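Case study.
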Amino acid sequence: MPPKETQPARPTITVLHGPNLHRLGAREPSIYGTTTLAELDARLADVAGACGISVVCRQSNHEGQLLDWIYEAEARSRGLVINPGAYTHTSLALADALRAVAIPVIEVHLSNLYARDPARHVSHTAAACRGVVMGLGTEGYVLALRYLADELCS
Ligand code: DQA
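After joint prediction, the assembly is written out as follows.
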């Protein structure tokens, strides 16, 4: 039997969704839209495939779990897209982890935090990231993913 052709592993980008984002599509649709998390993750997989990369999408409501996944992302992937949800406004621990990892990180928010209540104007995590995309709904994730994919090609 001829030897099997081995495909080089595609570079991977990790996408982390924080608390309450499992309810995307049903949760406050006037703010967050009607796309479900499963639909968003499927779209990100399509975009990644078209860019010649892989994407791993994970959601947790738990800060410690997100911390562990940030470090796992550093070990297993070449970039990270994260929507820390409400932890954006509270979590020094997530900010510290994002600063500690050596891969580029893009923070994404579906809504425009500056058009919302003042408590949401503060992001502890944003300064630990390469950049932030907000207010563009689920398209913000696509833009962040494409940015990281382009960086892998350059
Ligand atoms: C959010 C904004 C946060 O303030 C909020 O707590 C979320 C979602 C966004 O994507 O717009 O859970 O991160």
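Observations recorded in class. Residues 20, 83, 85-86, 88, 109-111, 120 surround DQA (CB under 6 Å). The longest strand covers residues 12-17. We will return to this complex in the next lecture.
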